[in-house]
Design a protein that fits this description.
Elements: H1 12-22, H2 29-42, H3 47-54, H4 58-67, H5 72-81, H6 100-112, E1 118-134, E2 153-166, E3 172-177, H7 182-195, E4 201-206, H8 215-222, E5 227-231, H9 242-254, H10 262-278, H11 289-308
Helix pairs in contact: 1-2, 1-5, 2-3, 3-4
């Protein structure tokens, strides 16, 4: 009987994982045994010899070798060793705005070099915030179990939050209203006008939503020349810093909340704004327009190449 056979081909990553698993003190006996078998097979040892040493029958050795012994746990270990995360998918959408470069440079310029005697505000609406009431009380977090709540809920109405985030301080001016038409936007502009000290220019970073460009809005702005609107490129909400604040609001105050009515919801939002303004944190922007344009252009080239293939 020969103690040698054609060596089982193993990659470096597989061999590294199997070697660690063969010495494991916590893995199951079956996993350790399988790792030992595959490592021996990779050395070209005969199935019968491996079976005698490891304590299995030759048929088991042949089936292990055929399958390469790659269990879901071992696949995960290989991914982890190489820093691979195939379960994560990043979403993106290149902007088709013909004035993308110009708008990007304008907004980045405000972040990096804000004008003197002026205030820079990032403004947007968070629409259709739902007042959700769970059908049963949630169970609090205890040792060994996280907080649990029912998957179903009762809808008790919605509200829209108009918010303006001051870049230099991190303070937020916010108002909840039933709708988000141009009338509500105008009212919020008037609120900003009252709150910002006289003598300061107001630079407002906003998106291209139609209400922001309504004729009545334009007429009002002409009568209030200290307002300067700066529009972000289309499909570029990441450029507006208030979007990050909206995300924090959702995660920290709304997602797990139970709201019996819209007033309950509004009260929670207002409490969050007050807490934010009691200990605000200035927002620091470091990316230059040039560095962003370089990444965007690389993405466009890669996307075009994918389409051609």
């Amino acid at each position: 009987m020969s103690n040698h056979a054609p060596a089982l081909a193993l990659g470096d990553a597989q061999r590294e994982v199997l070697a660690a698993l063969s010495r494991s003190q916590v893995a199951s006996h079956r996993e350790v045994q399988r790792a030992q078998v595959l490592l021996m097979a990779s050395e070209g040892l005969a199935n019968e010899w491996i079976a005698r040493v490891v304590g299995v029958n030759p048929g088991t050795v042949r089936s292990m070798a055929a399958r390469l012994g790659v269990s879901p746990a071992q696949v995960q270990r290989i991914w982890a060793a190489r820093g691979l995360k195939p379960h994560l998918v990043k979403t993106f959408k290149p902007s088709n705005d013909p004035n993308f470069d110009e708008k990007l440079i304008d907004v980045c310029g405000l972040y990096l070099n804000p004008p003197e005697n002026a205030i820079v505000l990032c403004m947007d609406e968070k629409t259709s915030i739902q007042a959700l009431d769970r059908t049963q009380p949630s169970l609090p977090m205890v040792k060994g179990r996280g907080e649990t709540m029912t998957h179903d809920y009762k809808r008790n109405g919605t509200t829209t939050l108009f918010a303006a985030l001051e870049v230099a301080t991190g303070k937020v001016l916010g108002t909840c209203v039933p709708k988000h038409r141009h009338n509500e936007f105008l009212d919020f502009l008037k609120t900003i006008e009252k709150e910002v000290p006289k003598g300061l220019e107001i630079h407002l970073i906003i998106d291209n939503y139609a209400t922001h460009k309504h004729a009545n809005v334009k007429a009002w702005l002409q009568k209030h020349p200290r307002f300067h609107l700066h529009f972000t490129p289309t499909s570029s909400s990441w450029l507006n810093l208030v979007e990050g604040w909206f995300r924090d609001l959702t995660e920290k105050a709304l997602r797990r909340g139970v709201f019996h009515s819209v007033p309950d919801l509004i009260e929670k939002i207002e409490d969050y704004i007050r807490a934010n303004n009691e200990n605000p944190k200035p927002l620091i922007w470091t990316a230059t327009a040039e560095s962003i344009l370089e990444k965007v252009n690389r993405g466009r080239v890669a996307l075009q190449a994918t389409k051609q293939n």
